[in-house]
């Protein structure tokens, strides 16, 4: 197949003397002319993309004499599950193969990113400073090299996570390779998607419960507490600070005799029980709900609920009223409570004629 005018040479040798000489020379071989068929533009684009490696230099690679760690990553997503495969080769020659199975649904693009993040995390734990990572995903390499702009929120989060991991390495190179050269990582990613992954004893296997870009809800318990009913007693017992109002200051001193501060926790003296721990409003709400409808809760009435909390060693000023209000707001208690037969209005006596 050729796009040169050989048809004229092979079919019309009398057009020129020089062409006749070439026709005689080519006559010894069985050469036939065939017209080239049309080639789709997408096929050409795929061919050029697969056979033209692109490099992304994150650092200056001038010190080529120092050997780098080779990292090959790939991700897979199918109906049976999603997973990634990581192959990390050290400069000394030993190779680490790692398969990671997802406990969540992920697209193929997200699996490719998870593979790269997992590989960089492993390399960071092994204290590898010079990394040459390879992937067959044009999207991941293009985003990492700043050749593409992320259009989806998930891609932008993955790119931000990748950028935050770069300072851990001296040199980080991301290159695009054909899929045929990334066969081992591709096999590991497909191995991570099979159902009988636990029976494999030759490859290191792990599980990922949530995406690495997912935000975990964390409750900060080190924040300074807001002022509440315990604040005057704590200020007096700890720092000898009284309110500015003389009347309130006298009340605080008088009432503080029933309280005691132990290791930053306020306790109140009880008549027939040990010291009762004082609770803030948020802690009181949690204790009420846990005792009323928790694992061992049986949706008792308001008085019984308040006595239970006292027997457990808790106290706050509005304990009894809060317990009654919680029972009144409880949906299950209202649905299963006894129906009141009391008339809504006083009865009117009727005399017989």
Shape: elongated
Q: SSE order, as H and E?
A: HHHEEEEHEHHEHEHHEEEHHEHH
Kindly report the name of the CATH homologous superfamily of the largest domain.
Answer: Ribonuclease H-like superfamily/Ribonuclease H
Strand runs, count: 11
Topology, pairings included?
Elements: H1 6-11, H2 17-27, H3 41-51, E1 55-57, E2 69-78, E3 81-89, E4 95-102, H4 108-125, E5 130-135, H5 138-144, H6 153-165, E6 171-176, H7 183-191, E7 204-208, H8 231-239, H9 246-255, E8 259-262, E9 265-268, E10 276-278, H10 281-293, H11 302-311, E11 314-315, H12 319-329, H13 331-336
Parallel strand pairs: 2-5, 4-7, 5-6, 10-11
Antiparallel strand pairs: 1-6, 2-3, 3-4, 8-9, 9-10
Keywords:
single chain, 353 residues, alpha/beta, Nucleotidyltransferase, domain 5, Endonuclease III, domain 1, 3 domains, 4-stranded mixed beta sheet, 13 helices, 11 strands, elongated
Outline the structure in words.
GO terms for molecular function: nucleic acid binding; RNA-DNA hybrid ribonuclease activity. Residues 287-337 form the Integrase zinc-binding domain. Residues 80-191 form the RNase H type-1 domain. This is RVT_3 domain-containing protein. The chain starts with 5 loop residues before the first helix and ends in a 17-residue tail after the last helix. α10 packs across α11 (302-311) and α10 packs across α12. Residues 61-65 have low confidence and may be disordered. 38% of the residues lie in helices and 17% in strands. The protein folds into three domains: 1-37, no CATH class; 51-208, Ribonuclease H-like superfamily/Ribonuclease H (Nucleotidyltransferase, domain 5), CATH 3.30.420.10; 231-336, Endonuclease III, domain 1 (Orthogonal Bundle), CATH 1.10.340.70. With 353 residues, the chain is an alpha/beta fold. The protein is built from 13 helices and eleven strands.
């Amino acid at each position: 197949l050729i796009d040169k005018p050989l048809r004229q040479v092979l079919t019309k040798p009398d057009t020129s003397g020089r062409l006749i000489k070439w026709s005689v020379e080519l006559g010894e071989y069985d050469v036939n002319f065939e017209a080239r068929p049309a080639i789709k533009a997408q096929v050409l684009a795929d061919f050029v993309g697969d056979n033209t490696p692109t490099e992304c230099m994150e650092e200056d690679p001038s010190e080529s004499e120092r050997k780098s760690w080779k990292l090959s990553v790939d991700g897979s997503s199918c109906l049976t599950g999603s997973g990634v495969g990581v192959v990390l080769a050290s400069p000394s020659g030993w190779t680490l193969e790692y398969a990671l199975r997802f406990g969540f649904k992920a697209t193929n693009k997200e699996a490719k990113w998870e593979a790269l993040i997992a590989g960089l995390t492993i390399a960071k734990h092994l204290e590898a400073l010079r990394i040459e990572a390879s992937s067959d995903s044009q999207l991941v390499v293009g985003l990492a090299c700043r050749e593409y702009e992320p259009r989806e929120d998930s891609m932008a989060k993955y790119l931000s996570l990748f950028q935050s991991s770069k300072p851990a390495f001296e040199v980080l190179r991301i290159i695009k390779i054909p899929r045929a050269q990334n066969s081992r990582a591709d096999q590991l990613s497909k191995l991570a998607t099979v159902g009988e992954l636990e029976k494999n004893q030759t490859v290191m296997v792990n599980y990922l419960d949530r995406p690495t870009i997912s935000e975990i809800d964390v409750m900060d318990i080190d924040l300074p507490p807001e002022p509440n009913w315990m604040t005057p007693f704590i200020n007096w017992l700890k720092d000898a600070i009284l309110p500015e109002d003389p009347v309130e200051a006298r009340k605080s001193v008088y009432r503080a005799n029933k309280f005691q501060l132990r290791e930053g926790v306020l306790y109140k003296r009880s008549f027939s029980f040990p010291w009762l721990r004082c609770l803030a409003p948020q802690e009181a709400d949690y204790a009420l709900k846990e005792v009323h409808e928790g694992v061992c809760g049986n949706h008792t009435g308001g008085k019984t609920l308040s006595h239970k909390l006292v027997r457990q060693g808790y106290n706050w000023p509005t304990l009894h009223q809060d317990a009654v209000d919680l029972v009144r707001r409880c949906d299950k208690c209202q649905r299963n409570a006894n129906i009141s037969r009391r008339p809504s209005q006083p009865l009117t006596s009727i005399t017989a004629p």
